[in-house]
Amino acid sequence: MQFMESPAGLAFLHRQIGALHFVFGHQGLCGVDLICLWLEVTRVDVFVGASYGVQRTAAADVTNGIVAFGTEQRPRLAAQMPPRTIALAEDETFPEGVWLVAMDPVTGFIVLEQAADNHEAATWTAAVTEATGDLKVTIAVSAADEAPGLASHAAAIGAHHAPDLFHVQRPLWQAMGRALARSLEAPAAALEKATAVRVSWRERWDRHLAGPRPVGRPLDFKRYLAGAQVVEDQARQANEDAIALKDNAYAAIRRLSSAYHPIDPNSGALRDAACVQADLDGALAIINVAAKAIRLPFAGRKLIAKAGRVLPKMVATIAFFFAEFDRQLDPLQLPPAVHDHARRVMLPVAYLARLAQRAATVADRQTLLAVRQDLILRADVACLATLLPEQRRQLDAVVLTCIDLFARSTSCVEGRNGRLALWHHHLHRLSSQRLASLTIIHNYWLRRSDGSTAAERFFGHPPDDLFDWILGRLDMPARPTVAPARLAAS
């Protein structure tokens, strides 16, 4: 009791209340009423007002503090950031009206997250222009789905529209997944029936041989059994063909992902637009053959056609990747040998390192790093000795920038939209102030395994500590005006 009344105890209560609202109220899905209950259960309500009104005021103060932090930090960090050429992953979500969300997929920094009247191209362009007005960034790529507004918006800001691989594979799985699974049912049933017939004839023949034999000419068991065996073999082959058809179609859908790389992950070799197009077209041809074989309904064939219309845009993105790399190298005026080395060695090495960071399993990561290490060991780096230190720094920067511009997925934004949907489901509505606070927490507080925040990765400089900044401006917790009922009763 005496400790809580001391300066150290008051400082503890101050941090405790601030942390409750910051962690549970703004990062977890915990309402003010549960925070009041926590204060009561832990008996902290003896020292701090635990009524809903008091804690609702504290929650609002924390929200306002978070927004004020972002308002203060962003200009300082934006002024210090080096110029960057970036890709933006963009998408809209509809929890209540229209929300526009745009994120840098490399750093995870949310550039734009706000409500809008609509999701037309002009609205997108105005929102992105305003959101990046104070940033030293050039948007070279807009990664998004095939919504007409987003495609037109990319053209309006002079960015390349990169398709989202998910929106190519998803309609194919919708069209083919269940249909191919159902196509196995009839061949499997036919094989089971044929096997039962063959076993039946074998058993009848065995019973005939074991005796006693009935009067009259016996059946030609050998002929009937041979015929049943032929039917079973045919049914087995038909079942195996159906399984192979399904497996090949599934593999072709997955192949769209493995083919959509400017660098071969298995060898580190360059994959130009023609190479990628051949692989994508080959995969789509297998899918179409399977669709025809199982007599896919018209709705499914429409989904396949929808995915097929995106493939040329994927090929165009590969062509853009290499063209942009050459465009950014041209001002450096590198010797031909260095240019070739940068394209065939430095670019694959950097790309494989980026893939390894995102690998799903340890085995995949080790395989990619092994291919990368092999490229490094086999490379002739003598040509780089002719470069000045500043030229080498610029060359390294161009390689990393171009790697970051190849955005084949908007999963970062899709995940963010899912998170916002959870918040909306919990609170039923998100005010602009609360949405802004969630954006700032994501950008300036949440950390990756290396300890960096999205703002630090995006701006190149670390922000101040968000919680300590808020705590320094948060009022001391209000004292209870009336003693808790349990103390009054005692």
Annotate the secondary structure layout.
Layout: H1 2-5, H2 7-25, H3 32-41, H4 52-80, E1 84-93, E2 98-103, E3 110-116, H5 121-131, E4 137-144, H6 148-156, E5 160-163, H7 166-183, H8 185-210, H9 221-259, H10 273-293, H11 298-308, H12 311-329, H13 336-357, H14 362-378, H15 389-405, H16 411-427, H17 432-444, H18 454-459, H19 466-471, H20 485-489
Parallel strand pairs: 1-4, 4-5
Antiparallel strand pairs: 1-2, 2-3
If you had to describe this structure to a student in words, what would you say it looks like?
It is a single chain. With 490 residues, the protein is of the alpha/beta class. The chain has helices at 2-5, 7-25, 32-41, 52-80, 121-131, 148-156, 166-183, 185-210, 221-259, 273-293, 298-308, 311-329, 336-357, 362-378, 389-405, 411-427, 432-444, 454-459, 466-471, 485-489; strands spanning 84-93, 98-103, 110-116, 137-144, 160-163. The protein has a five-stranded mixed beta sheet with strand order 3-2-1-4-5, with helices on both faces. The protein is extended and about 110 Å long. The model has no long low-confidence stretch (mean pLDDT 91).
Name some characteristics of this structure.
490 residues, alpha/beta, five-stranded mixed beta sheet, 20 helices, 5 strands, extended
